[in-house]
């Protein structure tokens, strides 16, 4: 097309009306809608013409630089992301400038904290006289993050925070360590039993009720949601996010990590190495499943397994057929996975906080056992991980969108292979083995991501603690 406005697969963009001088955008014609990174999204104003206030961190590795934006809301709609997750997002319309051209675009607001690009330009925003060349970058020139040098830098929050730990096990080691670490730093921590929460879904004033009474605003929520409460726990977490709380791990990322089959697909799409995995619905495909993972020995895993339960090693083909048939007879969902013999019953747990491996340990299965879980009698010791293992752990957490994760991997003859990514990793084993204050690092990370000023809530009701609500 003669005279077409050319875009590469990545471009620099500016938003004059939002006071955003430079942000990197991924141009994706496979995506219908455009999206902009936003946290602490807060609607305000009359219901018939609402405004939206939000915070943008334009530089991925510098969360201390933030821009507070506001714009009229034009819609609130459900968006299905590339990984199939549904999310209700606020939509704004504002001019975008690329090169010497400026035009209005609709943007959905969503947390893209774990994404490399703070903006996604979808096909709806690409005009008829524009062309996209997926082999080129920055066709409209390059800007620079130096444009933010005069922007005020936000320091980690020094004021006391009100933090909720969403858990049904308030007395376990991890919950208590997080509580103690936060209180040592001057914050107020309340344990919230997920099962006792009720949601009042309202566009102007969403609420979470505890035993029938409204909970107060929380600056941050630490989700410690058990596997049996995943679906409801994610709904509760979404509600807290709608109320303006910073969620340590977003619900969509927790859901992705809990679905073992989907998690493996996400990791494979990101090019992350893992044991070869197979899945089939038809009972006629047993032979194919076994051949896909290069034969016996192999591992059969229930998709809902935790702490090593529902994981079986089949050492021969006949044993594999028997286990697979038995699981099918129970109408259970399971995957079949390659057995990495050279790992010799050991795996490595890397604890990732904010895109960095802060602690690690090696777990060794007891004699005669291949599962190294500490809950199954395995032992733990310090380990020095390689640069490749560190990068794999960080990449796996990022692919699933988790700010805090326990990444389990095997040492194979071809390099590290990711087994699983846990969105609520326990602290006891890794803290005692490594000697690191992981709980303190998590609280410090939260301090660096919570807004300086909590969002205003509708109404004048007095804040109540979870203990007061329960009385």
UniProtKB/TrEMBL annotation:
Residues that hold Mg(2+) 1 according to the record: 408, 420
UniProt: Mg(2+) 2 binding residues: 420, 422
SUPFAM superfamilies tied to this protein: Acid proteases, Glutathione synthetase ATP-binding domain-like
Annotated positions binding ATP: 301, 338-339, 347, 371-373
GO molecular-function term, one example from the UniProt record: ATP binding
Alphabetical UniProt keywords: ATP-binding, Ligase, Magnesium, Manganese, Metal-binding, Nucleotide-binding, Protein biosynthesis
GO terms under biological process: SOS response; translation
Entry binding sites for Mn(2+) 1: 408, 420
Coiled-coil annotated residue ranges, if any: none
Binding site for Mn(2+) 2: 420, 422
Residue ranges of domain ATP-grasp in the record: 264-447
GO cellular component: cytoplasm
Keyword flag Manganese: yes
Co-factor note (free text): Binds 2 magnesium or manganese ions per subunit.
Similarity remark: Belongs to the RimK family.
HAMAP family: RimK (MF_01552)
Protein name: Probable alpha-L-glutamate ligase
Organism of derivation: Maricaulis virginensis
């Amino acid at each position: 097309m003669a005279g077409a406005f050319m875009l590469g697969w990545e471009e620099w963009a500016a938003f004059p009306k939002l006071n955003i001088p430079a942000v990197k955008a991924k141009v994706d014609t496979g995506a219908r809608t455009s999206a902009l990174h936003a946290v602490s999204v807060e609607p305000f104003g009359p219901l018939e013409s609402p405004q939206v206030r939000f915070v943008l961190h334009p530089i991925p590795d510098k969360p201390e630089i933030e821009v507070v934006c506001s714009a009229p809301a034009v819609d609130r709609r459900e968006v299905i992301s590339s990984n199939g997750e549904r999310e209700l997002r606020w939509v704004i319309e504002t001019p975008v400038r690329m090169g010497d051209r400026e035009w209005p675009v609709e943007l959905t607001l969503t947390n893209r904290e774990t994404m490399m690009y703070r903006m996604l330009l979808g096909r709806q925003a690409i005009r008829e006289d524009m062309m996209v060349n997926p082999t080129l970058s920055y066709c409209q020139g390059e800007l620079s993050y130096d444009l933010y040098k005069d922007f005020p830098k936000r320091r980690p929050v020094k004021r006391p925070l009100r933090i909720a730990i969403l858990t049904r096990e308030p007395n376990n080691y991890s919950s208590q360590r997080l509580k103690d670490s936060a209180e040592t730093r001057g914050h107020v921590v309340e344990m919230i039993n997920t099962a006792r929460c009720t949601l009042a879904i309202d566009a102007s004033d969403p609420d979470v009720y505890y035993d029938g009474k409204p909970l107060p605003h929380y600056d941050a929520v630490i989700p410690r949601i058990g596997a049996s409460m995943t679906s409801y726990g994610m709904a509760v977490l979404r509600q807290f996010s709608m109320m303006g709380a910073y969620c340590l791990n977003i619900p969509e990322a927790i859901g992705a990590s809990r679905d073992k089959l989907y998690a493996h697909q996400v990791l494979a799409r990101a090019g992350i190495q893992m044991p070869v995995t197979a899945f089939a619905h038809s009972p006629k495909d047993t032979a194919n499943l076994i051949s896909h993972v290069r034969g016996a020995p192999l591992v059969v895993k229930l998709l809902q397994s935790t702490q090593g339960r529902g994981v079986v090693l089949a050492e021969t083909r006949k044993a594999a057929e028997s286990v697979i048939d038995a699981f099918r007879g129970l109408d259970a969902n399971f995957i079949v996975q390659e057995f990495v013999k050279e790992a010799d019953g050991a795996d490595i747990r890397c604890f990732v906080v904010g895109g960095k491996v802060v602690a690690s340990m090696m777990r060794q299965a007891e004699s005669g056992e291949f599962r190294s879980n500490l809950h199954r009698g395995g032992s733990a010791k310090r380990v020095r991980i390689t640069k490749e293992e560190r990068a794999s752990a960080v990449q796996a957490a990022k692919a699933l969108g988790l700010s805090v994760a326990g990444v389990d991997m095997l040492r194979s003859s071809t390099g590290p292979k990711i087994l699983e990514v846990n969105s609520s990793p326990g602290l006891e084993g890794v803290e005692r083995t490594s000697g690191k204050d992981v709980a303190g690092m998590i609280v410090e990370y939260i301090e660096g991501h919570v807004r300086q000023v909590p969002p205003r809530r509708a109404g004048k009701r007095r804040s109540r603690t979870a203990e007061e609500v329960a009385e």
